Structure prediction request, 84 residues.
Amino acid sequence: MANQNNISSENDRRQISLNNQTLWNELSSAQKVAASSLFNYGFELKFIRVCPTEKVVGLLLDGKPATINDEGDINTNPGIDIRE
Prediction:
């Protein structure tokens, strides 16, 4: 049974990695640079919100959100709630 749990865990990690790679590929160059700087602090890429006027990247660290706008500007106090 432990072997089956290990396989399931590995599949979960691959899916998470694939999802992050998919999101990463959607970022602009400026957003990638900004996101990379937040990764150094432990933030994880969680979502991209595409609006008619901009694409906002959402990251999360210990329940605390951060966002990155189209220009690569980081907001560590965006005033948004993140659902888990």
Observations:
- Confidence is low (pLDDT under 50) at residues 1-17.
- The longest helix spans residues 2-25.
- The chain has two helices and four strands.
